[in-house]
Amino acid sequence: MGDRTLSRHFTDLAAALSDFRASHGWGRAVALPQLGVPKRVIAFDLGDGPFFMVNPTISWISRAEFEVWDDCMCLPEIAVRVRRSRSLSISYLDSEMRHAQLDHVAEDLSELIQHEMDHLDGILLTDRMLPEWGVVARSARERATKVHLLRK
Ligand SMILES: [Zn+2]
Fold first, then answer.
1. Ligand 1 mean position to 71 CA, how many Å?
2. How many Å lie between the centroid of ligand 1 and the Cα of residue 19?
3. Active site residue 116
């Protein structure tokens, strides 16, 4: 990827994420394949502005898993219950093409990174859906949690 092309990708990703957050009020990351470009680039915005991962590789992933509601900018009306690893370490190139890594990230970032890495591999959240939950309207996911707990 040339520098000019990459910098255009960063601009497009940041704009897509910012537009989605403005219109929907949520959204922490977007992967370049979601914009129709099959390259391994992810933009994140965890509240402090965008940062980017180019060619990210998971170097370690925890065996311990947890269940979480997953949602996606591609399918903004739905939520599905998935199982994700509690933590991971990831290495990547940053927007300046410097090697960078995050080690033993917290659960909320771990599940987000796993979701975005799936996009790079053509896997959607529904492919990971725990079948006993099915597809839930995103607006109903908290209520769905309570129903599930009551059934136990
Ligand atoms: Zn997604």
1. 7
2. 15
3. yes
